[in-house]
Design goal:
By secondary structure, chain A is mainly β. In chain A, 0% of the residues lie in helices and 50% in strands. In chain A, β7 and β8 form a beta hairpin. In chain A, strands 2, 4, 5, 6, 9, 10 and 11 form a 7-stranded mixed sheet that branches. A 4-stranded antiparallel sheet of chain A has the order 1-3-8-7, with no helix packed on it. Chain B is mostly beta strands. Chain B is built from no helices and 11 strands. The chains are: A mainly beta, B mainly beta.
Chain lengths: 115, 114
Amino acid sequence: DAGVTQSPTHLIKTRGQQVTLRCSPKSGHDTVSWYQQALGQGPQFIFQYYEEEERQRGNFPDRFSGHQFPNYSSELNVNALLLGDSALYLCASSLDRRLGRNEQFFGPGTRLTVL
Amino acid sequence: AQSVTQLGSHVSVSEGALVLLRCNYSSSVPPYLFWYVQYPNQGLQLLLKYTSAATLVKGINGFEAEFKKSETSFHLTKPSAHMSDAAEYFCAVSEGSNDYKLSFGAGTTVTVRA
């Protein structure tokens, strides 16, 4: 049973560029959340997707956007990259919380470096 | 709004000694609480979770945690540390039936001395 997978593993961009990160949820999961983990800090919630819609959003600017596809996979897009966007981006999948399942399974992350 | 405070950014223990990692939370409703472990250059792995059932929760790799509502705490323990326990540990809280996000603490790095 494949767990959560993310691509690419590492990415280097320059300021002002745009980036797209991808995530495939654990088999059977329908909900995808994205987190940003800066060096030496805990993960910070960016947003969550369920049924192809953004269901909840954290305190991140509109430069951060996402998408969920019918097969439940997801993309995170960041526009106009800033140096401060350098971080490990984690994807987590889960079953819809309303079903009583609230456990999130994390992927290995994408390390984004902005120069 | 919920939040988590992890007391101590670094903990050093001898192999075979008790591991104790402290987590205090704030939440306006009964919370769901989690401990995750992160090994270098990897994602987060769930150690254990509290979801309003038993207050003493047993997890993987010999870890357990006790939910104490009166102290708003969810401390993580392991009776005997192993070298493989060296990692970063995060406490997280989720609140309410309509709040889907996890709010994490800043993490505690554990080193194990031979």
